[in-house]
UniProtKB/TrEMBL annotation:
Family: Belongs to the NAD(P)-dependent epimerase/dehydratase family.
GO annotation (BP), single: L-threonine catabolic process
A single GO molecular function term of this UniProt record: L-threonine 3-dehydrogenase activity
Name of the protein: NAD-dependent epimerase/dehydratase family protein
InterPro entries reported for this sequence: Epimerase_deHydtase (IPR001509), NAD(P)-bd_dom_sf (IPR036291), NAD(P)_epim/dehydratase (IPR051225)
Pfam family, one: Epimerase
Coiled-coil segments on the chain, per record: none
NAD-dependent epimerase/dehydratase domain residues: 6-233
Length: 314
């Protein structure tokens, strides 16, 4: 069997931090190259400082390590992107185009570039949003994800590049904090609750959004990347569902552990972003094509989050 050499761009981010140990376990520590703009706090395995907006720098790393797979996880998320739309567009698109082009020119075998529920907008059905819904996103992040999906499909059709993608819901994890997203409240709330603090939520209490626990998000990613090429019918990005909940439902679940915990609601500009997104997702195409099934519901996710975060603050 040929050895893989796997480059993870955006390795210090929320998904990279949790994905790298799994890739290291599967392929061996010396076969996973973690890359980011800044060094991580603790380094385990190979790390490269890399600015993926620079095609020469990316090419150099890909050639030096004879990279066979790339996970491109670096992006400016929905809320942060709105503070400087042109900067966010340039960063998100330049890095995606560099990854696609450098992969094509250097015969990288497989590429993973995530999309997001942010690709959907006003004219997609809000409940059980189908795979093939109309895409008219309200944020620059969403616009960049729709463009990324189309560029990925183009590289697959035109050059045969094996690019795969998932439309991630809000990802809930204890390993690291997300940054700049609209779903971030659902991680921050746990950090406050386990410290005995109350929580001020920037979304209203009944804002239903699609979310996914990190274990499910990682399993979906690895299952998609492991699926035989013939099974991949979607070359834009697969809808992916975990569990949908509102801030009020999450608060009630946390209160089963901390009965005195209170959430206060102070919606800000992120409310309009959340209101433009789906509430629940139909991921039946992922199920049909490569057998996707989420394992974590709201109670199980809450238990895991509290179990892992409690010792962090003791
Ligand atoms: C965000 O909130 O921007 C992200 C996402 C849903 O892609 N978590």
């Amino acid at each position: 069997m040929k050895r893989e050499s796997i480059l993870v761009i955006g390795a210090n981010g929320q998904i990279g931090t949790a994905l790298i140990p799994l890739l290291q376990a599967q392929f061996g520590q010396n076969h996973v190259i973690a890359a980011d703009l800044r060094k991580p706090q603790t380094e385990q395995g190979i790390f490269e400082l890399l600015d993926a907006t620079k095609p020469e720098a990316l090419t150099e790393v890909v050639r030096r390590y004879r990279v066979t797979q790339i996970y491109h996880l670096a992006a400016v998320l929905s809320a942060k992107g709105e503070s400087d739309p042109l900067w966010a567009w340039n960063l998100n698109m330049q890095t995606v185009l560099n990854v696609l082009e450098v992969s094509r020119l250097n015969k990288v075998k497989k590429v993973f570039i995530p999309s997001s529920i942010a690709a959907f907008g006003e004219h997609a059905p809000k409940y059980e949003t189908p795979q093939m819904a109309f895409l008219d996103p309200a944020t620059v992040y969403g616009i960049s994800k729709v463009a990324t999906e189309n560029w990925s499909m183009y590289y697959h059709k035109r050059y045969g590049l094996d690019v795969r993608s998932l439309r991630y819901p809000g990802v809930i994890s204890y390993q690291s904090m997300p940054g700049g997203g609209t779903t971030d409240y659902a991680v921050a709330i746990f950090h406050e609750a386990v410290q005995g603090h109350n929580f001020e939520c920037f979304l209203s209490k009944d804002t239903l959004l699609p979310m996914i626990y990190m274990d499910d998000a990682l399993r979906a990613t690895l299952e998609l990347m492991d699926a035989p090429e013939a099974k991949i019918s979607i070359r834009t990005s697969y809808n992916l569902a975990g569990v949908s909940f509102t801030p009020a439902q999450l608060t009630a679940e946390i209160q089963t552990y901390f009965p005195d915990f209170v959430t206060y609601y102070k919606p800000d500009f992120r409310q309009a972003i959340a209101d433009s997104w789906p509430k629940t997702i139909d991921d039946s195409v992922a199920e049909q094509d490569w057998g996707w099934k989420p394992a974590f519901d709201l109670p199980r996710m809450t238990e895991e989050m509290i179990t892992h975060l409690t010792p962090v603050y003791q």
